[in-house]
Amino acid sequence: MRILLSLAFSLLLALPVHALDGEALLLQIDRNLNPETYESYRKLVNIEPDGRSREYVLFTVKKGLDKVASLFISPASEKGRSTLRLGDNMWLYMPGVGRPIRITSLQSVVGGVFNNSDILQLDYAAEYNVEKVEETGDGYLLHLRAKSRGVAYDRVRLWADREALLPTRIECLTETDMLIKTLHFREVKDFGGGIVRPSIIETDSPLYQGYRSIMIFAGIRERTLPDEVFTQTFMPNLESLR
Amino acid sequence: MGKVTKRPGWPSWLLPAVFLLPALAPAAPADEFSFEVAEFARKPYHIGGYAELRPVLFGLDTDAALHHLRFFDRDEGGTTAEYNGRLQFEASLEKGIGRLFARVNTDYSNSYLGESVEAVFYDGYLSLKPSPSLVLEAGKKNLRWGTGYAWNPVAFVDRPKDPDDPELNREGFIVATAEMIRSLAGPLQTFSLAPLVLPVDGDVNDDFGESDHLNFGGRLYVLFRDTDIDLLFLTGGSRGSRYGMDFARNLTSNFEVHGEFALLHDVRKRVIDSAGDIAEQEEDAGSWLLGLRYLTAAETTWIAEYYHNGAGFSREEMENYFTLANRGYEVFQATGDDGLLRRMRDLAEGYGRMNPMRDYLYLRASQKEPFDILYVTPAATAIVNLADGSFSLSPEILYTPVTNLELRLKGSWLNGGSLSEYGEKQNDWRLELRLRYYL
Fold first, then answer.
1. What is the pTM of this model?
2. How far apart are CA B217 and CA B231, in angstroms?
3. Three-class HEC string of B417-438
4. Are residues A92 and A101 in contact, defined by beta-carbon separation less than 8 angstroms?
5. Nearest CA to A189 among A24, A57, A7, A32?
6. Which chain B residue's Cα is nearest to A217?
């Protein structure tokens, strides 16, 4: 499937830029970032202006366009917590509280600059329509608009590398084009199984002057799981998938 | 457990522990981009939990009815201190489709009553998961039914939450359950069915209700058009049969609504009238809750809940109780006869429990990291008794200076007129510091 998509996209690249199919370009960027269905290990690091930092390690599984679940495996104060996203619905399970509670995409279960929507990221094509594509010196600039009000950012500007068709920078904006945060994609790494993608996403925000949050990827691999894994009921059992 | 009468004071080993805790926290990493998955490889066992110190200072209301009941034969003055410690230890062991889990809570308390230590198994169960769509469990377990934050009228098989600290773990009951899950395409996205059996016999679940009964219950959950819906029931004889439903839904990305409705048959309560005669009543009752969570652009989270407890006491019933407690104190002072006070104490299990009346409002606002101060969350909680207008107001500040260490300073101010719920509590105020370190 990946080969077919790449082939189709190579043909598209031969066309002049005004004929670029933005939706196909975005789909290809999504597929280059992650397989549609995968598991991964991530570390989130929140860095304060004075250099102090907090780290969180998550195990994440994703299936299809709209199903993502994450489990905190470190530190001890967060261990066993899990989050689930089904489209615009999000829940947080805390072992002490027991029953999963609904959370919103704009909150952050870890603090720092990443919010829940960043941590439980779906495919960009699942949440955004492409309004316009521009050709830049070494790649493309995609102007994206949210498909519904439930999406965390109204508008997104995505810069992608022409060769690799991977994002290099993403700006998240309000409806009035106010910048909320910028994601910087760095250090492209071969994770095996044909997955070659940035291993580090760094974010900063004018709303959090001096603070940085970093997401470090390791161990991404394609994995197919039953739909029942992506249910509220299964949230206390996510550890068993590791 | 073992009790020794002694004036309150910190045990000598606790104070050094407070200062040593931050030293146990890991230092910031030398390389912010290093990450080896192997460090976090899954182990077949898990050991964790937390240690906690919690000193509390109470400002006593020496004119209140519940103060008279507790302190009629002793003088504690205007304030009394309590020093609490807690060790909550949990462990699990997994092999194949099986998993054993245990959580033991050990509380240490040093108060005007003396010193006490109590260890209780909160959870201890075996879980079998032959497939992702089927989970079988047996043992002592918390089920935590309901979508409410402060109260859960549909939590038919749980011990009641403390609305003042609803996220605390509680002791479970011994049950056997099965949970079958189906995920579907279309408007009905998820469907799960969880029947349960709860025996009450001899020492098994002896505080749940009437003995020598095998109780049956269940929960049917659906995620239908982005709304969580549960249908729940419990029957079998230890308690009157009860039926309920709950729901939760996000209306927008920052606004959630939830609710619970329960019909309880044959709820028993002991009621005392103005003449001091005690009657045991049995009646059907309806209880319900409606609530919301709202996150503002400034990252203030609001939680509001309205709770109607149909099985609670009316204002007149509570006033009778408080009036008789006050009269009992007058009799004791005049004659030394404590008979009426002791009768009132015997009824405190009902009248003296948390939120014993019928209509309450819960309001909580918490602000994430105000003024860019990281890892600090101030909050304020109000619980209002709508029948008598009395209330408690609790400001707090939570700070996590290093990973795994939490400090919480919390105050509570109780206010209400004569013969009102919060006006007749034994305290006017309380101040509490909680230090918790996750292991």
1. 0.85
2. 11
3. CCCCCCCCCCEEEEEEEEEEEE
4. yes
5. A32
6. B35
Across the interface, of A46, A231, A242, the residue whose CB is closest to B192 is A231
| Residue of chain A minimizing CA distance to B182 | A228
Residue tagged 């504690």 (tokens): B76
Token pair listed for B121: 């198994």
Per-state percent for chain A, helix, strand, coil, to nearest 5: 20, 45, 35
Question: What average pLDDT does chain B have?
Answer: 89
Instruction: Look at residue B113 in the predicted model and tell me its pLDDT.
Output: 87
- C-beta atoms of A99 and B145 within 8 A: yes
Chain B nearest-CA distance from A97, in A, is 5
- ipTM for the complex shown: 0.77
Amino acid at B142: N
**Stretch B384-407: mean pLDDT:** 95
Interval B176-189: pLDDT, tens = 999 999 988 889 99
Report chain B residues whose CB lies below 8 A from the CB of A208.
372
| B37, B190, B438 ranked by CB distance to A77: nearest | B438
**Residue A204 main-chain phi, psi, to 5 deg:** -140, 165
Measure the CA–CA gap between B68 and B321, rounded to whole angstroms. Answer: 12
Rounded CA-CA distance B150/A91 in Å is 18
What secondary structure does DSSP assign to B129-182, as a single string? EEETTEEEEEEEE-----S-SS--TT-TTSPPP-TTSTTS----EEEEEEEEEE
Which of these, B276, B324, B323, B329, lies nearest to B68 by C-alpha position? B329
CA distance A121 to A142: 18
Subunit contact A98:B183, Cβ cutoff 8 A: no
B223–A227 CB contact, under 8 Å: no
Q: What is the pLDDT of residues B371-389, one digit of tens each?
A: 877 789 999 999 999 999 9
Residue pair B244/B261 in contact (Cβ under 8 Å)? The answer is yes
* Closest chain A residue to B373, measured at CA: A48
Strand, coil or helix: A168: strand
CATH of domain A2-241: 2.50.20.10
The separation between the first and the last C-alpha atoms of chain B, rounded to the nearest angstrom, is: 26
Tokens of B294: 């709202």
| β-pair partners for B192 | B181, B221
**Cβ neighbours of A242 in B, within 8 Å:** 42
Rounded to whole angstroms, how far apart are CA atoms A6 and A12? 10
Which of B374, B406, B439 to probe by mutation at the A interface, max A CB count within 10 Å? B374
Q: What is the DSSP secondary structure assignment for residue B186, as one 8-state letter?
A: S
To the nearest whole Å, the CA of B131 is away from the closest chain A CA by: 9
- Tally Cβ neighbours within 10 Å of residue B78: 10
* Chain A residues whose beta carbon lies within 8 Å of the beta carbon of residue B129: 237, 240
Interface A-B, measured as beta-carbon pairs within 8 A, has a size of 156
Half-sphere exposure of A236 toward its Cβ, with a 13 Å CA cutoff? 19
**What average pLDDT does range B124-138 have in this prediction?**
94
Contact between residue B354 and residue B162 where contact means Cβ atoms under 8 Å apart: yes
In degrees, rounded to 5, the angle at the alpha carbon of residue B295 between the alpha carbons of residues B293 and B299 is: 145
Picking from B21, B24, B33, B293 by the largest number of A CB atoms within 10 A of its own CB, the best residue to mutate is B33
Mean pLDDT of B111-138: 94
Could you say which DSSP state residue B40 is in?
Answer: G
pLDDT in tens, B236-284: 989 999 999 999 998 887 889 999 999 999 998 889 888 888 888 999 9
CB-neighbour burial class of residue A10 (10 A; exposed 0-12, middle 13-18, buried 19+): exposed
